[in-house]
């Protein structure tokens, strides 16, 4: 148990950010995340989750799983970094996907084996932040995406954009909730660093993959609110019962956009 977190912090991470403290009862969809690095185990797992997504291709199932996986890995880790100045080990060898359902929706959580907490030293937060980012991205997501890209024959760009859209959404919305002015400034500084200045090696890539997909929001006929138009398609439409049911940000849609900066 991470005693260096307060009970209130743990409660927030568990309730709002997909952190699990114990194994789930459903073991069918629960795995150690290192299984994603093994081609046979990865494909077997995608076959299992295919019954949840009901997509028409393995590529689509891989993309839809990657959306959920990226969210459960980054939500609790980056929230704790930006709001609590605390971090845990999110390397791929320390994580487990724990299956949870909320109604009909499948909302997996992440459980950790080791709960050792790190905090920044005085006047050393920037260096500590780099360590946290490297741990989450280079030591987990980059490895998972490279393996999944090979096993499921899906473009790694799709997987990274699936990750980037959640980084944008979490920092622009969820991570600001209930924050005072000082915390909002820290959240914004971390967000600015992640999507622009953070070097590629922290993500296990030659270039920053979060910056790659950032673009000005535009108002289009596909959405009532300004949106970032994706550069890649996530294949959601292949899992929909409705024909041509694309996400409003999908590049396959004809967007008549007016930039709002």
UniProtKB/TrEMBL annotation:
* Highest taxon of source: Bacteria
Protein's name in the database: Aerobactin siderophore biosynthesis IucA/IucC-like C-terminal domain-containing protein
GO MF: 2 iron, 2 sulfur cluster binding; catalytic activity
One Pfam family this chain carries?
A: FhuF
Looking at the record, the residues that make up the Aerobactin siderophore biosynthesis IucA/IucC-like C-terminal domain are 63-173
């Amino acid at each position: 148990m991470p005693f260096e977190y307060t009970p209130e912090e743990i409660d927030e991470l568990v309730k709002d950010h997909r952190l699990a403290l114990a194994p789930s009862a459903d073991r069918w969809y629960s795995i150690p995340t290192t299984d994603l690095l093994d081609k046979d185990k990865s494909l077997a797992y995608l076959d299992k989750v295919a019954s949840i997504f009901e997509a028409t291709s393995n590529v689509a199932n891989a993309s839809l799983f990657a959306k959920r996986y990226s969210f459960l890995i980054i939500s609790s880790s980056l929230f704790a970094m930006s709001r609590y100045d605390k971090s845990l080990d999110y390397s791929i060898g320390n994580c487990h996907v724990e299956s949870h359902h909320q109604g009909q929706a499948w909302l997996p959580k992440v459980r950790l084996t080791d709960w050792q907490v790190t905090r920044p030293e005085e006047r050393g937060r920037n260096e500590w932040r780099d360590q946290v980012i490297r741990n989450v991205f280079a030591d987990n997501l980059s490895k998972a995406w490279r393996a999944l890209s090979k096993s499921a024959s899906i473009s790694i760009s799709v997987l990274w954009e699936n990750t980037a859209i959640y980084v944008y959404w979490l920092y622009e919305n969820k991570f600001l909730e209930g924050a005072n002015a000082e915390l909002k400034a820290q959240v914004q500084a971390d967000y600015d660093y992640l999507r622009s200045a953070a070097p590629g090696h922290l993500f296990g890539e030659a270039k920053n993959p979060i910056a790659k997909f950032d673009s000005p929001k535009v108002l289009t006929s596909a959405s009532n609110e300004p949106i970032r138009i994706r550069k890649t398609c996530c294949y959601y439409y292949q899992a929909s019962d409705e024909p041509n049911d694309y996400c409003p940000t999908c590049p396959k849609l004809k967007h008549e956009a007016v930039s709002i900066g």
